[in-house]
């Protein structure tokens, strides 16, 4: 519905490019988007979701976003609130969502915050392993004005090697505020 508007604004006016393709033939996957350094990432993500024609991809966001007065908007846009203040077995809850749906995808930021972090959170990786789904790595490169999509990444039995490969993908991708990136 908003695809022509996003194409006009993000591609024609702002000069962003889409690099790579989403695997439309895969019905279940998790999208790990990084670096997450700005509130603008949300708008870039919405534009990318529309331009790649993957409106069915939902997102996880901190529960504070889903309160009055904007809660209805984030839910309408496909958000699921996450309570980060306590250990609530989120990985298993999300895995159960995948099991209940024929086609399901969720996007999240592995850093879990816009602030500088020393390492990424691994929940997305554990969700992918337990649900037996691939991870689609997506980078928002503000320096090159690109939304970069990597081919599906299937977690192996070697989590340490997998995390090195995942971090290597994000290396060199510059967030809105590069000093806050991975």
TrEMBL record:
Signal peptide: none annotated. It comes from the Bacteria. The keyword Zinc-finger does not apply. Residues 30-143 form the Phospholipid/glycerol acyltransferase domain. InterPro entries: Plipid/glycerol_acylTrfase (IPR002123). One of its GO terms (molecular function) is acyltransferase activity. It holds the Pfam family Acyltransferase. SMART domains: PlsC. Keywords: Acyltransferase, Transferase. SUPFAM superfamilies: Glycerol-3-phosphate (1)-acyltransferase. Pathway: Lipid metabolism. This is Lysophospholipid acyltransferase family protein. The lineage of its organism: Bacteria, Pseudomonadati, Bacteroidota, Cytophagia, Cytophagales.
